[in-house]
Design brief:
- This protein is of the alpha/beta class.
- The chain is 39% helix and 15% strand.
- The chain has ten helices and nine strands.
- Strands 1, 2, 3, 4, 5, 6, 7, 8 and 9 form a nine-stranded mixed sheet that branches.
- A hairpin with a 2-residue loop joins strand 7 and strand 8.
């Protein structure tokens, strides 16, 4: 075993988890692409003004296959499901595919008191709850796009961007192009601290970890308090983004990145929370999520 892994690290087949965090499936990112070529490329994200559908055909097929795989390990006769998601359409559409697969298999789906938005209501038929703590809500679409690999850079209406910002962008992109990692997440994780020196408003992956990773842990605690999930065998199925889990995956598992539709398991155990990823598990103290 690697000496840098936590002492409470183990490997092997995982039991059922109380909650599952799943990264969204492959998508076209149509909303951000449309914003970047608009008269305001730096516009803030508006969750109620998104282009649908957004998952690619391959992404829809991947989500369906991964949903079948996940639910093969659960029991429709005993396990009940509660779906939550980021407000981004790529996460909502992924969640809905899993929801449809679960429904076809006969699972009981717990309907939330509210979906959290008109788009979520439309996509998930009122059975997916939007959770702000899983959402990204970028305040500047163009700046958010800065970590895209060179091959995936979208057309940008530079005529609508001030010259000072453009010069800073070009400086930042030179850093990324010096050793482009090939994916948004890998570039974000490797270069966010360096780019923050040019754009101080950017959050590094460590800052995102400190602000948002605990939300995944709190989600399990919230569900236990609201539903008594362990006794009632309620599984929380959560959909979100790689941005805020990258640092944790490296620190806790020495893993770099999370694939589309890949899963992190979360389970309560007394005053501990167990995380599982790629057939490894780590036990965290409850205060980690405070």
């Amino acid at each position: 075993m690697d000496k840098n892994l936590p002492k409470n690290y183990s490997e092997g087949e995982m039991p059922k988890d109380d909650a599952y965090f799943i990264r969204h499936s492959k998508s076209n990112y149509k909303t951000s692409a449309d914003t970047l070529k608009s008269e305001d490329p730096r516009a803030a994200f508006d969750p109620e003004k998104q282009i649908t559908p957004d998952l690619t055909e391959e992404g829809r097929e991947l989500a369906k296959n991964k949903a079948e795989e996940l639910f093969n390990g659960l029991d429709p006769a005993g396990d009940k499901l509660f779906f939550v998601s980021s407000n981004e359409v790529r996460a909502l559409e992924t969640a809905n595919i899993y929801r449809e697969v679960a429904s076809a298999r006969g699972f009981e789906i717990i309907k939330p008191d509210k979906s959290g938005g008109a788009l979520a209501e439309q996509i998930g038929s009122g059975e997916i709850r939007v959770v702000e703590n899983l959402s990204l809500n970028p305040e500047d679409t163009l700046l958010f796009h800065i970590f895209a690999p060179q091959k995936l850079l979208r057309p940008i209406n530079w005529g609508a961007v001030d010259e000072e910002f453009k010069k800073k962008w070009e400086r930042a992109r030179e850093i990324i192009k010096s050793d482009d990692q090939g994916t948004y997440g890998a570039n974000l994780h490797k270069y966010s601290a360096a780019i923050k020196e040019i754009f101080p408003q950017i959050e590094t992956t460590r800052e995102m970890h400190e602000r948002q990773f605990g939300n995944l842990l709190r989600l399990v605690k919230w569900a236990e308090k609201k539903f008594n999930i362990k006794d009632n065998k309620i599984r929380v199925i959560a959909f979100g983004h790689e941005n805020y889990v990258l640092q944790g995956l490296e620190e806790y598992f020495q893993e770099h990145g999370i694939d589309n539709c890949e899963t992190i398991g979360l389970s309560l155990s007394d005053d501990k929370i167990n995380l599982s990823f790629r057939e490894k598990t780590v036990e965290l103290n409850a205060q980690t999520s405070k």
